[in-house]
Model the fold of this input.
Amino acid sequence: MGRKWNNIKEKKAAKDQSTSRINAKFGREIYVAAKSGEPDPEANRALKVVLERAKTYSVPKHIIEKAIEKAKGGGEENFDELRYEGFGPAGTMVIVDALTNNVNRTASEVRAAFGKNNGNMGVSGSVAYMFDSTAVFGLEGKTADDILEVLLEADVDARDVFEEEDHVIVYAEPDQFFATQEALKGAGVEEFTVAELAMLPQTEVTLTGEDVAKFEKLIDALEDLEDVQSVYHNASFDE
Done:
């Protein structure tokens, strides 16, 4: 199941970097993770996952340190982790993860983004059952056969290992995130183009014609919301 991870990520990163949006989103996510447990990533798995993901987006060190220091100082801001589910053009399915200090505001904004862009927000559970939580890694300089052998030797049971353009993509169980990452690092992988926990669709809907533009407008509207951290979907596009 190819998801064009790197193309999607590069497009989003380019857009976010131009407005510093990505730094603000990660600053919030790091603060929440650090505040929820120890501010030390070695003692806080949630924080460690966020920091590993932040590396792949080249989040500046001072943004990371500022968020952690804020959490250490007992910052008074509190955020709720929310998940919204909905539908886009041509029966596509969309999951929206948010961090917010105003639940009513975020719910209203997400609902409006769906409604104004050829979509509609569904009830909890209407979409998520068609997605699987997955540890996703992307890397360069290796072949899929090389990586599969490394993971087998490390006794890591990957869901899938495949090549996408000049990258190798690895799908693993969420609880195997760190085991997978350590096995890959042990094999000489120094940098990851993707290293995150994501929601992968069990089936995809291929969009064509006007539906592509409509769908991209919906996703852009959702990702532009201040409280939205991640958007997952089951759309694919003919190339």
